[in-house]
Protein 1
Amino acid sequence: MARNSDLASAKPQRATIRDVARIAKVDPSLVSRIVNNDPKASATLATRKRVLDAVEELGYRANSAARMLKTARTQMIGLLLPDFSNPMYSAIISGVEKRCTEIGYGVLLGDHAEGHSEKTFTDLLESGQVDGLLIASGTLPDSFLKNNILNHHASVVMINRRVRGADASVIVKDELGAELAVQHLSQYGTKTITGIFGHRNVDTAQRRKKGFESAAEKFGLKHQSIEVASWGMEDGRKVGVELLSKKVIPDAVFASTIMMGIGFLRAAHEMSIKIPEDLRVVALHDSPIANYLTPSLTTINLPTIEMGAQAVDLLVSMMNGGSPRNMVVSDLPTLTIRESSRLDID
C-alpha cells in the first residue's frame, strides 16, 4: 500500500513564476509584469512571446490571492449601467467581460436605478470592492458625474460618453452612424426626415444629432430634431404617437437608439401607419431582436463590444500609472437593411 508521503511525492507540482522565468530565460519580475499586463513591462515582442509560450507550456496560473495581498488590489472592475436589458448595454457587458477574463480580472455589475445612483457609485469605490470603475450612462447629468465621481476617484473611465472636464473615455463614431442612416433614408424620393434623440445635455445625444442634421442638410432634406429625457421604448412610442397624429408626417424617421426605434414601430402600429410604405425607419445599434420585429428593423451597427474591451484596457493602464485619454474606437459603423426601410420600386 502506498504511503501518504509517496502519494504526495507523486502529485504533480504546480508551476511557479520562477519555473516560467527559467524556461523563458528572463527575470521572474518581468514574468510577473507580463502576465499581469503591466504597461510598464519593458520587453521586446520576442521576449514577451517566450514568456507567454512558457506560461502555456507549464500551465502556469498566477496566484491571485497572493497578488491581492501584495498589491492590495481586488482584481475586480466595476461596470455601472442604467439598464441591463438594453441590447447596446448587453454588447458593452460582453466586451468588458471577455477582455477582463483574458487579463485575469473579474467584473462586478451594478445598475444606477433612479434614487440609488449616488449610493451605488460611492459604495463600490469607497468600500474597496473594485480597483476601478467603468461607467456607461446616457442619463446621469455631467454635474453629478463630475462632483460625485470623477473629481474624487482617479480610476474611472466613461464608456460611449464624454463628460466636460474629464479626461478618460472611450466612444464610437456616433456621428458617422447617424450620417449613414440619413444617407440610406434619403433614397426613394425622401424629402422630410425626423430624428429622435436623448437628453440635450448628454454629449452622446448631441454627437448623434450633429451627424443627423449635417447629413440631412447635405442631402437636401427638410429635417426636424426631437429631444426627449431618456432613450427607452416608451420614449420612442410617445414621440411616435405625437408625431404620427399630425396631418402631415415625415417621409422617414431616424431613432438614435434601437429601443426608441422599437417604441416608434409600436406607435406606428397603433396609429395604423404602414412601414415602410407610409414612412421608413432606421435605428442606431443592432441586435438580433431587430430581425424578429414586424416589420424587421433596419439598424446601424456600432462596435460596442470593441468599445467595452478598449475601455477595460484604458482603465487597467490607468490603474497601473498610465495617463487618462479620450479615445475613439476606429471601427466604422455598418448598415443592416431590413423591412422597415426597404421600399422596393418596380
Note: The first strand starts at residue 76 and ends at 81.
Protein 2
Amino acid sequence: MGFTGRCIGVHEFGGPEVLSVFDDVKSAAAPERVVLRTRYCGVNPVDVSFRVGRMRGYAGDPTPGLVLGMECAGEVVDSRDPGLPVGALVNALTLPGEGPHAGSYAEYVEVDARRAALVPFGLAADAAAVIPLNGVTASSIVDELAPGGTVAVTGAAGALGRFLVAAASGAGLTTIAIARAADTALLLRLGADRVLDTATLGSDGAPPVDAVVDAASLGPGLTDWFAPVDTIVKVRADAEYTLPHRRLIEANVRRATDVAGRIAVWNRRVRHRPEIVGPIERFVPDEVAAAQERLATRHRRGRVVLRWRECGPVGRPGGSRSSQLTLARHRDGE
C-alpha cells in the first residue's frame, strides 16, 4: 500500500530560495517500518544546516530531492510493527539522507519503528512532534557523563538546554544552568540546582564543574567562565574550544541507542511538565522559509513546527512537479 503526498526539501544546497515541494510515495514495505500521516513536524537549526550544505556527509547528493526534518508526530496509516498499530498517534525521530526522502517535512513519513513511540493520552501532538530530536540528544549526552558529578549547561533555557537540565537533574547530577536571570524560575522548576546569570558570569566566573555541555555553542567563550574541566560536550560539529579539558564529546543523535525507549520516557515527562518544551509557534508548510528564519530570532523561547494536518494541501505554484514555495501568511487559518 502506498501513500502519495507532498514533501519539502532541496535539490541543491543554498538559501531559502532552494526550498521546493515535490511528490513522494511512502509505504511500510519492510519489517519494522511504519508510515505516519503527519500532523506536525519540528523545525530545527539542523534543518538549516542540511539546507545550506553543512551536513553534506549525511545528506549525500541532494539532486534527487533531499527531504528535510528530523522529528514529527502523526497517525499510523501503515505498519509492519504490532506495537505501533494503524490509527495510533506516534512521534518519531527521522534521519535525512538515510534513505530516499527520509526527512519529516512531509505529508506522509516512513519511519523506523525502533525510532518511534506511542504518544500518551494528554500529550498534545504539536508538543510530541518536538520531543524526539532534543529528547534523544539530551539523554544520550547525559549517559556519557560521569555519575554523581557536576555539570554546567550553557544555553540552558533554549530548546535543547531545557531537555538537558531535566535529563541531568533526573540522572542525579548536580546541574548548573547558564542562562539569563529572567529564566531562573523556569530552570529551577526543571531541576537545576543553581542558575548563573550570563550577564554577571564574565566578572564572577562559574564554580568548578566536572563537565560543560555547550548547548549555546559558545566555543572559545567558555574559557572566560570556567576553570579547566574533565569533559566538554559540543553540540555544533564546527565548535572549537580553548578551555583545557581531558575529554571532548560530540553530540550526535545518529549514534543514539534505544531511541524508541528514550522518546517514550520523554513523552511521559513532557506530558507532566510541558515547560520542558515551552511555547510552540505553528506555521503552515508554505511558510517553511519563514519558519526556518524564525529560528534565528535572538532570545527566542519555545519551539517552531510545521502544521500539516488540517491545513490543506501544500501549494504547487504553476503546477510543476517541483517548484519554489510561496510565503503566504496564513498561519493557523489567519
Note: Residues 311-334 have pLDDT under 50 and may be disordered.
Protein 3
Amino acid sequence: MINLIFDLDNTLYFRESAFANAIRDVFPDLTQSNVGTLFEHFEHFSAVYFEHHEQQLIDFTTMRLLRIQATLRAEGVKISDNDAAIWQHAYEQHQYSLTLSEDTVALLDWCKSQNIPRGIITNGNTAHQTQKIKNLKLGRWFDENRIIVSEAFGVAKPNREIFDCMHTKLPDQTTYYIGDDYEKDIIGAHNAGWRTIWLSTKTSHQQPQPDYHVANHLELLALLKTLK
C-alpha cells in the first residue's frame, strides 16, 4: 500500500482558464494576445512575489497586485493598482467557480475505492486555499486533518517541516507526492524522503529527477494502478 499526497493549484485543478476569463473580463483589448504566454508570466511572477511574501517583505494583498502588474508589464502593458485590484477580484471569482474535471474525479474516486491514504499540502493564504478546497468539494475525498495550508502551518514548501508534519498523519508506508512545481513540490518532497510524481507537460534536467513524470490525470491514474 502507498500514501498519496497532492498539491492543490495546477495539480487537482488547473487555474489557467480562470486567469484567461479574468483577462477577458477586465482587459478585453488583450484577448488577442497569447494568453498562454501571459499565463506563463503570471506563474513566474506568482512564485517570485510569493517568496517575497513568505519573507515578510510584502503583504498578501500587495503580492497579488504586483504579480498581475509584472505579468502585463512583461508584455508592454502598464496598469494601475486599482486596475490590478479589479482584475484580482475577477480572477478570484472565476477560481471559486471552477469545478474538477471528469478525469480528476475519476482519479480521486479510484484512490478512495482502493482505500489509499490521501492528503493535500498547498502553499498559500489560509482563507483563500480553504475556500477553493470547499468550492471544489474536495472534502469528498480528503479528511480535514490531512490538509495542510502553508500560512496556517507557518512554513511553506519546499521546507521539509511541512512534509514532515504530514508524515506524522500517515501510515508507515511509501509516500508519493504529486505536484506541478519542480522546486517546491518535487525537490521539497524528495528532500523529505518521499517518492515524487511530477505532473507537468514541461521537461527539466534539474537534479534530482522525479521518480515519475506524467502529463495529465489519465496518465497519472494509469501510473498509480501500477504502484499501489
Note: The longest strand covers residues 118-122.
